[in-house]
Amino acid sequence: MKQFSTWQVLKNGFINQKGWKRQWEDAAPKKNYDIIIVGGGLHGLATAYYLAKNFKLKNIAVLEKNWIGGGNAGRNTTIIRSNYMLKGNREFYEHSLKLWENLSHELNYNVMFSQRSHVSLYHSPSAIDNASRRYNIMLNTGSDAELWSLKTLKKKIPHLNYSDDSRFPIYGALVQKRAGTARHDAVAWGYARAANNLGVDIIQNCEVNGVITKNNNIVSLNTSKGNIQGGKVGFAVAGHSSILWQMANLGNLPIESHKLQAFVTEPIKPLLDQVVVFSVGGAHFYISQSDKGGLVFGGDIDWYKSYAQKGNLPIVQDVAECAISVLPCISRLKLLRHWSGVVDMSMDGSFFICKTPLNNLYLNAGWNYGGFKASPASGWYFADLIANDRPNRVIQNHNLKRFEKGYQIDERGAGPDPKLHG
């Protein structure tokens, strides 16, 4: 497969873009693979790529029930950050951000990573004091963090609602400048292309309908394209983890599947250079502006459990109210589209990358709101787990047994309620 270059881009500009070839092969499944990754989203593709790149493994397949980039990978708000505090999370997300910083060069594919700053607004002096602890931990563990005064914030983002009688008075912000956004589908395409270039079979429209086990191992997977045998199997299917878990007769996972809606407005002139976030008084909101000019934003999950990938009016109203409360100038904009992704919310708000009760099955699940930003590190650590059959020390406590041990990794301190870990 040819490497992208400036010369190729210029050349194809003169020939109506007719010189490009398929970026990855749409493989037909073989009867047997050494490693099968179920789920062709960002985490599954990244895992296959790092298995092939870091460990030089061959005979790997990625099974995707739809098309690459057609699931949750293309249904998020593209935010990337590493402002986590607790042990395990802190190192994991910082490693992910470092991988993001070089990802376009590594994959030879422009994932459009833009380090435009993640700005968390705070609405009382006590809120800033409380959040400063998190950002001091970030500074002391090799990351970046800043505290912006109200004066600085007004200079950087003049369009926010700074009025004294605003619904959420703004006192300042905590900022991570290295954070930002990327283009979600480009990341999926980049990983698919790079993995396929290393010999990974990308098998689309291949849904797993059954899991056959024997002697505490997965023997094969029944799929819409036939029976496929695998030496090792990894589940990386986001909000549908519970379905495959039950297919393997493993009972219930400690997660709930909820809808998380996202919105895009009609395109406008450049207005917002940063990612702006606030969470106060039951309201939760985040917004950025895409390269095409649309404002991309979202808020709380739907509290009822669902596998639907469509929005509903109550959340539209809730998120629109949050948007206008902090950015009144956008009140006349029209929504271009909105949609929903399915997120698997864990009991403590943190993920699972771990071995399972079956000897050759490995689990990647429970990503809550953190799935997109985690993609590179998720693939990196999941590949390491599958290849070496043991967890890296960074993720050693991100397993299913942590609740038995009373070891919660709860960033928000919200307690054992999946709905509260937004």
Radius of gyration: 22 Å
- Helical percent range? 25-40%
Tally of DSSP β-strands:
18
C-alpha geometry: globular
The percentage of residues in β strands lies in 25-35%
Mean pLDDT: 94
* DSSP helical segment count: 10
Structural class: alpha/beta
Q: How would you summarize this macromolecular structure in one to three sentences?
A:
With 422 residues, this protein is an alpha/beta fold. The protein is built from ten helices and 18 strands. The longest helix is centred in the last third of the chain and has 18 residues, at 371-388.
Secondary structure elements and pairings:
Blueprint: H1 6-14, E1 32-38, H2 42-55, E2 60-63, E3 79-80, H3 89-101, H4 103-107, E4 118-122, H5 125-140, E5 146-148, H6 150-156, E6 172-176, E7 180-181, H7 184-197, E8 201-203, E9 208-214, E10 217-223, E11 226-235, H8 241-247, E12 255-265, E13 275-280, E14 283-289, E15 295-305, H9 313-326, E16 335-346, E17 352-355, E18 361-365, H10 371-388
Parallel strand pairs: 1-2, 1-11, 2-8, 4-13, 11-18
Antiparallel strand pairs: 3-7, 4-6, 5-6, 9-10, 10-11, 12-15, 12-16, 13-14, 14-15, 17-18
Helix pairs in contact: 2-7, 2-10, 3-10
What does it look like?
By secondary structure, the chain is α/β, with parallel strands linked by helices. Helices cover 28% and strands 26% of the residues. The chain contains 10 helices and 18 strands. The chain has helices at 6-14, 42-55, 89-101, 103-107, 125-140, 150-156, 184-197, 241-247, 313-326, 371-388; strands at residues 32-38, 60-63, 79-80, 118-122, 146-148, 172-176, 180-181, 201-203, 208-214, 217-223, 226-235, 255-265, 275-280, 283-289, 295-305, 335-346, 352-355, 361-365. The strands form 3 sheets. Strands 1, 2, 8, 9, 10, 11, 17 and 18 form an 8-stranded mixed β-sheet that branches. It has an 8-stranded mixed β-sheet with strand order 5-6-4-13-14-15-12-16, with helices on both faces. It has a two-stranded antiparallel ribbon with strand order 3-7. Strand 14 (283-289) and strand 15 (295-305) form a beta hairpin. Helix 2 runs parallel beside helix 7, helix 2 packs across helix 10 and helix 3 (89-101) crosses helix 10. The longest helix has 18 residues, at 371-388. It is globular. The chain starts with 5 loop residues before the first helix and ends in a 34-residue tail after the last helix.
